[in-house]
Amino acid sequence: MVTQVGRPWSAQIELTEGCTRLCGYCGLNAIREGKGDYKRMTIALAELVASQMAELNPEARLEFAMHGEPTVNPDGPAIIARFRAAMPKAQIMLTTNGATFMDPKTVSTRVAKWFGHGVDFIVCDTYYPERDELQASLRSIDPKVCSVKDFYADLAPTGWNPYHNHHGKTGRLLVIMDDIGARDREHSSRTLLNHAGSNPMMDVPAEPLKKTCTNPFREVTVTWNGEVRICCMSWLPEYVCGVVSHKRSLSSIWYGEEFELARKMLQNKNRDFAPCRYCNKDSGSRSGLLPKYSPLTEADIARAQEIGKPRMAERIATGAPMSDALKRRLKVIP
User: Fold this and answer.
1) Whose CA is closest to 56, among 93, 14, 13, 16?
2) Rounded-to-integer distance, Cα 276 and Cα 33, Å
3) By C-alpha distance, which of 152, 139, 145 is closest to 171?
4) To 5 degrees, how large is the angle CA 191–CA 195–CA 196?
5) What whole-number distance in Å separates Cα of residue 81 and Cα of residue 58?
6) Bridge pairing between strands 39-40 and 16-17
7) How many CB atoms lie within 10 A of CB 21?
8) Could you tell me where the DSSP H helices lie in 178-323?
9) pLDDT digits over 250-297, tens only?
10) pLDDT per residue over 294-312, tens digit each?
C-alpha cells in the first residue's frame, strides 16, 4: 500500500494505565473494576519512544494522558525529561485529575517538579466531589512556579485552546478545567464521547457510522507498554498497529500497513471494524483535507476486521472478565 499520509502533528503518551478515580463515563470501565491496579511506562521504553518520536516529528504536540492518571507514575518527571531532551521544540502538555495536587502545603513543590523537567503546561481536570477543594489548592500555587488560569473564565473567551500546538508561545501555565460531567458540550473541545463503546453511560451506534475520522491521520498514540493503537479512544487493544521496539520503529508503524489500511477504511467512510464500529465520534475538523484513497476492496475490509478482532475474540474465548460496558456493546454489535 502506498503511503499518502503526512507526519503526525500530535502524540499521546501513556505514563500510566489505571486511575485514582473511576468516573462513570470513562472508558476505563471497560478494562478496570475499580481504582488503582496501575501499569506504568518505564524510563527505558520512554527513551526509545522519545528518540523515535523525535525522528517522526520533533516539533509535535505531546500530551501525556490517555488511559490513566499520569502523575502516579513515580518516574513520570524523569520520563518527561527524556522527551524534552530528545525534542527541545516540542510542546509538552500534562493532563491530570490533580490527585497528587490536593494538598496546599505540597502542591507548589509537586507542580514545580513537572515544569522543571520540561512540561510547558498542565491541564488539571477537577471533578466532584473534590472539585472545590482541589481548585482552592491549585489557586494557592506560588506564582513564581507558574501562572494559574481557569479555562472557562480566562482562556476560552480569548480563543486559547490547550489542545492546539502553540509552538513554544505558552509556558509554565496550569489550566483549571471544570468537571466535564457537569459541563459537557459547553465548549467544542470539552465533549464527552462513548470511547468506542467503552463508556457505559453512552449508547453504541446500532450500525457503524458512515463517517470518516481524522484521528489516525493526525495523531499517534503510545500506551504504557509501547503499543500503538489506532487512536486514544481504543481502551482495549483491538486494533494494534504495532509495538514500539528496536526492531520496529514508531515511524515504520505510523507509515505501516495496519495504519494505512485503517486510514483507507475511514477515508472511505467505512467504520465496520473494531474499535471504530462502536465509536460515536464525529469526523473531525477539516476532514475534507484528508488524502484520497482508492475505493475499498472486499480484501481490504476483511483484513481490517481481522486486525481489529483477535484481541476481543481471545478475551471472549478465554472467559476473561467482561465489564458491563463491553457486555452492553457486544449486544449491539457482536
Assistant:
1) 13
2) 23
3) 145
4) 130
5) 15
6) antiparallel
7) 13
8) 215-218, 250-254, 257-267, 298-308, 310-317
9) 999 999 999 999 999 999 999 999 999 999 999 988 888 889 999 999
10) 999 999 999 999 998 755 5
